[in-house]
């Protein structure tokens, strides 16, 4: 038996299943890899064993092929052997049935460096970032609080100036200025209390003064008991889209090399606190994660930080290429 079987299989995929040329080309390359390995091991296509196939998949993984790529390769091989069994009656059992591709690693959350985060939040208060005093002071308070306490954007936007509780409404969040803490309502309706840093507290107090001055000139009903902490110029609660837009623009002006969104400040908070304290349980509580498994992903970011520090600091960590340059 030779590779003509693979060509016959691919023609059937094209005619019967009408797969795209891109998919067919990918499957053809995958089947070429299969036949190369069969040839190297002097194995007839009908004699392939599960152990052989498993070893070949492991080798692909060791060679640096991504889990996604290996999954597609396995799909091509498995489909081919299923076709051999059902249409050609050459096999009694598909040797690929019990073989699984390596698990795809979840992408690590993107976090700013400590220097990048500080540069970002500090630049929010500069006139270069925003000439309009109202927007400048409000945005600085928002970004400082996001980074200081690791809040989700929805949690931050739900904060009221004063806690309100009536039959019709209960504030989702508020700030305890005496304790320097923020109370928020997180996922699953769970409340939590998170410390607020000094820089964020100062920014919020400055914002409250500007906010009060703005409301004196606003047509917004002053009798409303619910008073959002962060408002637009019309006195209404600021929208998430507005915060996202201003943060992205600020990051560009600050010269950061990546697209910055509000959740990145939450990731940065978690990563930087973990780097400094090593207290995974405390980070879990402050983020409001129900399971510590969700928090453990930040240990990978912490390891990346340590690895980079080692690579830059340890004299034996440098590659020969860098040593000779």
Question: What is the CATH architecture annotation of one domain?
Answer: Orthogonal Bundle
Reported for the largest beta sheet, the result is: 3 strands, antiparallel
Sheet-strand content, in percent, reads under 5%
Number of helices: 13
Across the major sheet, the strand order is 1-2-3
| C-alpha end-to-end distance | 54 Å
User: How many individual β-strands?
Assistant: 3
- CATH superfamily membership of one domain: Intergrase catalytic core
Shape by Cα distribution: elongated
CATH class of one domain: Mainly Alpha
The oligomeric state is single chain
Structural class: mainly alpha
CATH topology of one domain: hpI Integrase, Chain A
Describe this structure in words.
By secondary structure, the protein is mostly helical. Among the domains are: 4-86, DNA polymerase, domain 1 (Orthogonal Bundle), CATH 1.10.150; 114-256, Orthogonal Bundle (hpI Integrase, Chain A), CATH 1.10.443.10. The protein has helices at residues 4-17, 21-40, 50-62, 67-86, 114-123, 133-149, 153-157, 198-216, 240-253, 262-277, 280-287, 292-313, 320-324, and strands at 174-176, 181-185, 191-195. A hairpin with a 4-residue loop joins strand 1 and strand 2. Helix 6 packs antiparallel against helix 8 (198-216) and helix 10 crosses helix 12. The two termini are 54 Å apart. The model is unreliable at 319-325 (pLDDT under 50).
Output the keywords.
4% strand; hpI Integrase, Chain A; mainly alpha; 13 helices; single chain; DNA polymerase, domain 1
């Amino acid at each position: 038996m030779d590779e003509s079987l693979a060509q016959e299989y691919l023609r059937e995929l094209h005619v019967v299943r009408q797969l795209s040329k891109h998919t067919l080309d990918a499957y053809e390359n995958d089947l070429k890899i299969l036949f190369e390995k069969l040839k190297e091991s002097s194995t007839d296509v009908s004699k392939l064993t599960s152990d052989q196939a498993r070893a070949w998949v492991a080798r692909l993984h060791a060679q640096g092929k991504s889990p996604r790529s290996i999954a597609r390769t396995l799909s091509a091989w498995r489909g081919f052997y299923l076709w051999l069994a059902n249409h050609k009656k050459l096999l009694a059992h598909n040797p690929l049935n019990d073989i699984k591709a390596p698990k795809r690693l979840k992408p690590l959350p993107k976090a700013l460096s400590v220097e990048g985060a500080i540069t970002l939040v500090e630049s929010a208060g500069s006139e270069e970032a925003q000439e309009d005093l109202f927007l400048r002071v409000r945005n600085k308070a928002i970004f400082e609080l996001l980074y200081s306490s690791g809040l989700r954007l929805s949690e931050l936007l739900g904060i009221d100036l004063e806690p309100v509780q009536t039959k019709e409404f209960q504030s989702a969040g508020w700030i305890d200025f005496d304790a320097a803490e923020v109370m928020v309502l997180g996922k699953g309706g769970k409340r939590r209390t998170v410390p607020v840093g000094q820089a964020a507290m100062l920014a919020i107090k400055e914002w409250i003064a500007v906010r009060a001055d703005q409301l004196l000139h606003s047509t917004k009903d002053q009798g409303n008991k619910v008073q959002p902490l962060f408002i637009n110029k019309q006195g209404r609660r600021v929208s998430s889209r507005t915060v996202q837009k201003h943060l992205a623009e600020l990051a560009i002006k600050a010269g950061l090399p990546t697209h910055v969104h509000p959740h990145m400040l939450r990731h940065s908070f978690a990563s930087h606190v973990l780097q400094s304290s090593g207290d995974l349980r405390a980070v879990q509580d402050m983020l409001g994660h129900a399971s510590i498994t969700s928090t453990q992903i930040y240990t990978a970011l912490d390891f990346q930080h340590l690895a980079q520090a080692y690579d830059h600091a340890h004299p034996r960590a440098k590659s020969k290429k860098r040593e000779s340059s």
